[in-house]
Design a protein that fits this description.
binds magnesium ion, Rossmann fold, binds adenosine-5'-triphosphate, alpha/beta, binds 7,8-diamino-nonanoic acid, two-stranded parallel ribbon, 238 residues, seven-stranded parallel sheet
Length: 238
Amino acid sequence: MVITGTGTEVGKTVVTAAVAATARAAGRSVAVLKAAQTGVRPDEPGDAAEVARLAGAVTTAELARYPEPLAPATAARRAGRAPVHPHAVAEAAAKLATEHDLVLVEGAGGLLVRFDAGGGTLADAAGLLSAPVLVVTPAGLGTLNSTELTARELRSRRLDLAGVVIGSWPAAPDLAARCNLADLPDVAGAPLLGAVPAGSGGLDPAAFRTAAPHWLAPRLDGTWDAAAFQVREAPRVS
Ligand SMILES: Nc1ncnc2c1ncn2[C@@H]1O[C@H](COP(=O)(O)OP(=O)(O)OP(=O)(O)O)[C@@H](O)[C@H]1O
Ligand SMILES: C[C@H](N)[C@H](N)CCCCCC(=O)O
Ligand SMILES: [Mg+2]
């Protein structure tokens, strides 16, 4: 399962942790792959470590880390370092899938953020994997446009949009957020599969793990089907 979003800071990491915790609670082994981590120093915990902190025992992997808080292609170029190519992301995810029930691949920023100088993106990695894609979205005004753009791009690539999850659902949702519960699945052409309450990333990890399955109920009123979260095929790469 590839976890992307409408942009950066929308809650991809928190949603990844919620999905991982839910799968762990269902007895499944989980690996989290952060394709390229930017904006984090070598000695700091990255997104994969944050998922492990919140979700518990998961395998973590990170293919590259660049210190500047930029798109991976830009950060790699400025650091004079090799970029991460989509085929490397797909190969790493496929290898993890041989050893885990569920592999979650988190990108950097939104779907078309560039990883290499050739314009390779997380969407390319998802295509190589034939993996379903989960789109994390903001709750409020502005999310309909960016969610529909992301869904259209996935559809144009014949990728499988599994659904949409709201990354940070406010305690007091305004009119736009409330209306978006109906409008997001409409514009995405895919179900709204959950909403993580705002502030959940600050919960004690034990409380996070207990609560997470309840945030990810399909259409917000049932139980989450962790079986949907699997890399289905090995990547078609040489
Ligand atoms: N549900 C939530 N509970 C608590 N904090 C949240 C929640 N959603 C988002 N945040 C906060 O908002 C910020 C962005 O969240 P997050 O790191 O998950 O974004 P991201 O989409 O993974 O961004 P990136 O592109 O950098 O990977 C973080 O500071 C995070 O702590
Ligand atoms: C630094 C940040 N937190 C992410 N890791 C990278 C986000 C890149 C976004 C690029 C863009 O869409 O303009
Ligand atoms: Mg993140």
